[in-house]
Design goal:
single chain, two-stranded antiparallel sheet, 501 residues, mainly alpha, disordered N terminus
Length: 501
Amino acid sequence: MPSAETTPARVRKPETVRPTREDEIAAAGSELIGGPLGRRALTGTSWWTPVRVVVFVAIGMFALGLVQKAPCYDGAWFFGASSQYTHACYSDIPHLYQGRGFADGLVPYFDKLPGDMDYLEYPVLTGVFMEVASWLTPGSGGIQHQEQWYWFVNAGMLMVCAAVIAVCVSRTHRRRPWDGLLLALAPAFALTATINWDLLAVALTAAAMLMWSRGRAVAFGVLLGLATAAKLYPLVLLGPLLVLCWRAGKWREFFQAVGGAAGAWLVVNVPVMLFAFEGWSKFYTFSHDRGIDFGSFWLIWSQNSSNPPSIDFVNTTASALVVLSFLGIAALTFTAPRRPRFAQLAFLMVAAFILTNKVYSPQYVLWLVPLAVLARPKWRDFLIWQACEVAYFLGIWFYLAYTTSGDAHKGLPTEGYHWAIALHLLGTLYLCAVVVRDILRPERDVVRRAGDDDPSGGVLDGAADHFVLSGLRHPEQEAPEEPSRTDWGGPEPLPHEGRSL
């Protein structure tokens, strides 16, 4: 028999972090269902695992979001522009069924549309999603009946995306599945889920984050490339990944991710580029030529200035601000006392992209919700930000009601809408500020305080530093020795470490 000296001790199983034990808001909210989990409570014996609970709650909240759209489904989409805003139930989906040629059987990117919008102005994978939904929409009945069905079909497909997002967010941090309830219960998530098709890109991005957390760089890249083929914003995640892999010396994994992303994006886009280049390029020309629009600080400037900025100036300045934001994130990464977590930098980069953009549609909050949950799983800060986003959600619809109700002026005037925009900007900046504080003071980071390093970081989790702003250094010579970690992320060494095995 092997001696005790040569028999490895049993590895400790991962310990699930329970928010009701570390978060006062979560503990107070749990009183509605019996209070925080006790020390002697038996877990892991029920079919209702944390991930399943999160998914069912997310589906329930998604369903409530569908109910919130009921006034529009019953007629506000069709019988009055103002009423769909006063009920805050507007959606692009039914309007674009006929407006983008799906009702007439036109093929996106290949068939020209009547009117000013000559081609579909969405990325290819989103166009495919829209086209598949049109195939599943019954062609019988009047156009209003078909638009209702088209919205319902899309809602069902988007609900699948919401469930995928809930699963991926709950599983990205192995020891923190209950953090997924932040996403599942996010009011702005439920309110904006069926305004447009953004959930497709969000689901692919969440799946990519899950793959990276498991060390699967190529799969991460492929999913991120597909997400970029559905919406442009996922591309900016490669910036934070670059500086993190630079600091950790993980160049092989970074280039695998970039290669996978480029390959997936090309597979989706090249066929359309070759056979319908004009239609394919519409999304990019439309994004460039689009004027200053709702939700941006550019709109406040434009509507309060006798000499508003030109589109070229806004495009150039917004691009420069994104680059400066990336440089700031890079400097933060290389000077932080501990390498930032991937989710933290991903949230900051997407937030910078949103804050500097010339348009902020209310559904863009969906881009940030999963990243915010992973970056700062703290109920107080998350709910403060969500309150600001819900206020903006109501503000934009009441403002549109004001501008479309004629002399009645029912709704929110321009000055009030500017305050709603400012609230959205301040709420997002607040969440960015607490994430930056967590990076500069890692002891304040609730994820690391629980004993983890970077559970969403994949190969970055627990890796030694190879490069910091002061210059290249060898981790064995200059970098401080990192504590040994168990397989569940804690700082305590395994019982057999340091022995001859």
